[in-house]
Design brief:
Blueprint: E1 20-24, E2 29-33, E3 55-58, E4 65-68, E5 84-87, E6 95-102, E7 110-115, E8 117-122, E9 132-136, E10 139-142, E11 144-146, E12 149-156, E13 166-174, E14 183-192
Antiparallel strand pairs: 1-2, 2-3, 4-14, 5-6, 6-12, 7-10, 7-13, 8-9, 11-12, 13-14
């Protein structure tokens, strides 16, 4: 790749040739095994044997994650569906996380609320039965709609204060046909900002 970030050299992991390298997606970890130090192929240096049988593991201590909440639900839109929130890319610093809301009615402008705290504000009494706002003191970001999916490209800065920070998102549809209040809501999405 061309967008790698150098973390500096590990004094234990000297340069080597012919190692095995594997990435295990389920664990989010990379493993390096074996190989040889090309500078010591024909020496008797016991500190760096010709062949190396050590196993090295690489992972980040601040892994990115995103998952739709199973308890903080949305409410029905005018198209008869309850919009769902999802992410096609994880929220890593210095990257763009694509957050999706859908299905959305074609004529409904859609926003994504993003906040760092959750709440429960039931909008039934103001004309939106079954609609609950799950984001406390959130920021509203406009989305772009393609077909029935609204997408927010959220670029996350490389700020150490964000490493490992939890955040919450919810789709808001300005949907006049949904109810008397004219909105519908997605479920809540729960994320953690990861650092490379």
């Amino acid at each position: 790749g061309v967008d790698w970030t150098s973390r500096g050299e590990d004094p234990i992991l000297e340069k080597r040739g012919g190692p095995g390298l594997a990435f295990v997606p389920a664990l989010g970890r990379a493993y390096l095994f074996g190989g040889f130090n090309p500078n010591n192929l024909f020496t008797s240096n016991t500190a760096f044997p010709k062949m190396d049988n050590r196993l090295f593991e690489y992972f980040t201590t601040n892994a990115a994650s995103f998952a739709p909440s199973t308890t903080a639900n949305g409410c029905q839109a005018s198209n008869g569906a309850v919009p769902a929130i999802s992410a096609s890319t994880l929220p890593w610093t210095s990257r763009t996380s694509n957050i999706h809301v859908g299905p959305v009615p074609a004529s409904a402008p859609t926003f994504v609320l993003l906040g760092f705290l959750t709440t429960t504000i039931d909008l039934t009494t103001v004309g939106a039965p079954g609609c609950v706002v799950h984001i406390n003191n959130g920021f509203a970001f406009p989305t772009t709609t393609n077909g029935t999916t609204a997408t927010l490209g959220l670029t996350i800065p490389n700020d150490p204060n964000l490493f490992g920070a939890p955040f919450f998102v919810q789709g808001v549809l300005l949907d006049t046909g949904a109810n008397n209040l004219g909105i519908s809501l997605s479920n809540r999405g729960d994320g953690v900002i990861g650092a490379w």
